[in-house]
Design a protein that fits this description.
The chain is mostly helical. It contains 7 helices and no strands. The radius of gyration is 18 Å and the shape is globular.
């Protein structure tokens, strides 16, 4: 599928749009899904370990908690739709998740000593993630950046598990 080009660069054809969607879904989208959810698990695991089960109320800024609550309320008002998850962390965006990590970096450092480098890596995919999340076609550079970060995330999680750090799903 390396030959799939952004459908907007050629004459319109429904099949080109389909090909782009399938290409992005098979390549970048699922990796972004994994990255965001692996970091949700990491944030929950580290902050639960360091601060206890009520970490959300103490470690997350009032503005992020408020935005997450608004999102939760929006879903609750439409119960026929799927819910993002049961914990408030599932109602956060990637930039909010990164902000939670940044503000609490001192809590992460004993577990992930290079947490500031991870913050930078997450920030580097924020815009490409938005391009894909809004159903657009990322550049080859952005797709590769996502692939590398995904591979790095797998290594990080394996390293934590090998060290005996318990990763728990929120």
């Amino acid at each position: 599928m390396a030959g799939v080009a952004d459908f907007r660069t050629a004459q319109f054809a429904v099949d080109r749009v389909d090909s782009c969607g399938k290409h992005i879904g098979r390549g970048a989208y699922w990796r972004l899904y994994a990255i965001e959810n692996l970091f949700r698990v990491l944030v929950h695991s580290v902050l639960s370990n360091q601060l206890g089960p009520d970490w959300w109320d103490t470690a997350v800024s009032p503005s992020v908690r408020s935005e997450a609550q608004r999102s939760r309320n929006s879903y609750s008002a439409r119960p026929w739709h799927s819910q993002p998850g049961s914990h408030d962390i599932y109602f956060t965006t990637l930039s909010q998740l990164t902000e939670i990590i940044r503000v609490n970096s001192h809590q992460f450092e004993p577990v992930v000593s290079d947490i500031h480098q991870w913050i930078v890596k997450l920030e580097q995919i924020r815009l490409p993630r938005n391009v894909i999340g809004h159903m657009n076609f990322p550049t080859l550079t952005d797709r590769r950046r996502i692939e590398v970060l995904y591979a790095d995330c797998r290594v990080l999680m394996a390293h934590l598990e090998q060290r005996g750090f318990a990763l728990t799903i929120p």
